Structure formats: structure tokens, C-alpha cells
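B., you asked whether I could sanity-check this one before it goes into the benchmark set. Here's the sequence:
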Amino acid sequence: MPTTSIPIFTEQSSNIVRMSFKLHARKADGSPLAAEECTVTLEGDGSLAPRHDSKRIFRTTNSDGVAEIVWYRRGIYRDIHATLTVESTADGSSVSIEANTPASA
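And here's what the prediction gave me:
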């Protein structure tokens, strides 16, 4: 199963409260992998849901093979360290994650 990860870090003094990411899923030939349910896991600080602690979610890609992921900061009194991991179950596929511009407040 193809897997990829991206680190998340924000300093204690940062005003970043959420970050947005795009996951890209591709078939073996490089074309978009549409309607693929990918597993997203978070190890470390933060959450994948705005109002409660969530470390594992599922995202389904659109017709372009893309799905949005949002990470939410849960602690404000320390530096934040986490790793976001995406996994696809499609044989021969590949996945990647790109960070969008961090959003504050």
C-alpha cells in the first residue's frame, strides 16, 4: 500500500491554529485516481477535527485525484510536533501530500 508523510511543526509563539494540505492520488500511469478512499493518520500534536481529538480520518479523492485535509492545533502552551500520513489501498497507485498556505485564526 502506498504511503507518504509530511511533518508539522509550529512554535509556541505561532498564531497558526490550522493548516491545510492537499493529498494527491495517482494511478500507475500517472493519471488521477478518482474516488479513492485514503486513510489519513496523525501522530503527535493536534487533531484532524476542529472540536475533538481525531487522529484517523478517511478522505475520498475527487475527479482530479485530490482531497483536502485540515490539521487543527490543540495546544497553545508548547511547540507543536506532528506527522501527517496518507495511505491508499489501490494497487499500483501513488500518493503525495502538499502543504497549502497555513491559515491563522
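One thing to flag: The radius of gyration is 14 Å. Otherwise nothing jumped out at me.
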